[in-house]
Amino acid sequence: MFIRVGLLFLLSALLFGLLAAIQYIVPGAGKDIFSFEKLRPLHVSSAVFWILMTAMGAVLTFLQEINQFSLKSIRIQKIQFYLFSFSFIAIIISYCFGIFGGREYWEFQPVFSIPIILGWVLFLSLFFSNNKTLKDKPVYLWMWATGVIFLLFTYCESNLWVIPGIRNRLVQDMTIQWKSYGSMVGAWNMLVYGSSIYLMDKIVGNQKYSRSNMAFGLFFLSLFNLMFNWGHHIYTLPTAQYTHIIGYAVSMTELFILGRIIYLWRQSLTFDNRKQHIHAYWFLYAADIWVFVNLGLAIAMSVPALNIYMHGTHIIVAHTMGTTIGINTMLLLACAFEIIGGRDTTVSIKPNFKFAFLTTNISLAVFFISLLLAGIAKSYWQFNEPSLPYGAMINTLRPYFYVFFAAGTCLTIGFVLLIVPLLRTKHKIMPDGISALTEK
């Protein structure tokens, strides 16, 4: 149910994103009902809720494959599910009515933070009640534990602005906000990456990757990134120089190791491995490609001299879309198809799935490139044509926005063709979890 609700949030993120894209090419379209200041938080929050709900669903499902949950654990899981579902849905409804009161990414009234924090505390207690120790455990359990702890910590940190003493000090307030957001992304990446490594072990039939030195190297590097890579978010703030240097040194380096793990894993698969988990395999394959596409851009963004030109342009949006859709969403869809759809015992991918998969990834590539080009054009205007009015500059970007909208439409169609059949699929119990592999 976590994953099914997560998939509905993914659909809502696509819908609100498409409506927002229309306002790029037809300024003011539908602003009386859904103005851009409504559509942006509706789109962003839906995307965040998709990641959180689906990551929780993947972790809980895989945990139950490792350790059968007690009745008490199942009751806690249900309470957690309703706390998150009702609060997230209520947040979306409040946005529709124009009720705001938070900060970027979390633009809802602070009162909604109470059930979210309570739900995450239940998630943390559920995880550790079923995992008393991490000694000699595979890397995905270390990743899940770290992700659960740090996501709770960073979410609380992101709400420190409600304290007047922090809110009234601009630089301190902005530093804490961007630090917490950067670390929070690192925390949910731990949940997503851990689930992906578990799934790779499950497909290949052993724990080769979850116990490898490279996997633990990814864990420790991701943990270091989670704690320190936020420095590249605040290059433009007058903060301590060492935070910028640390952020530059470690920013996004874990992507290289993640890509390497998936690449080596793909090379080791047998034909039967691929056939039995065909949908999950293709989503992991796509994520591997998008890891390396985004790696180059992430490295460029981490260079302070380049970051100045990129900051505040559509290049940042391209990076966000590339990582959120190309990496996190592809990895989570691999888990969703494995958990809900079960195994596809056919040798080849069904034509309708193949069409939707290719449409999604090709559209995302065009979408990504159009944003990059728009960002480059805007950056040139900022530093070379300051006398040109902002409105005139936006008009010069209109051709990129048309491509951006067309690609976004095709991307939405591709995702709908993937998600709707999955939502209509009855859940298939998968008894062959990693617990069955521990003796191998």
* CATH architectural category of the largest domain: Up-down Bundle
Helix content: over 70%
Using the alpha-carbon principal axes, give the shape: globular
What is the CA-based Rg, rounded?
Answer: 21 Å
Query: What is the H/E string?
Result: HHHHHHHHHHHHHHHHH
Short synopsis of the structure:
This protein has helices at 2-25, 36-66, 71-96, 113-129, 139-158, 164-167, 170-204, 213-228, 241-250, 254-268, 271-276, 278-302, 304-310, 314-341, 351-384, 390-396, 398-423. By secondary structure, the chain is mostly helical.
Characterization of this structure:
There is one protein chain. Helix 1 packs antiparallel against helix 2, helix 1 packs antiparallel against helix 17 and helix 2 packs across helix 7. It is built from 17 helices and no strands. It has 440 residues and is mainly alpha-helical. The two termini are 32 Å apart. Helix content is 75%, strand content 0%.
Q: Characteristics of this structure?
A:
Cytochrome C Oxidase, Chain A; mainly alpha; disordered C terminus; 440 residues; single chain; 17 helices
Sequence-ordered SSE layout with sheet pairings:
Blueprint lengths: L1 H24 L10 H31 L4 H26 L16 H17 L9 H20 L5 H4 L2 H35 L8 H16 L12 H10 L3 H15 L2 H6 L1 H25 L1 H7 L3 H28 L9 H34 L5 H7 L1 H26 L17
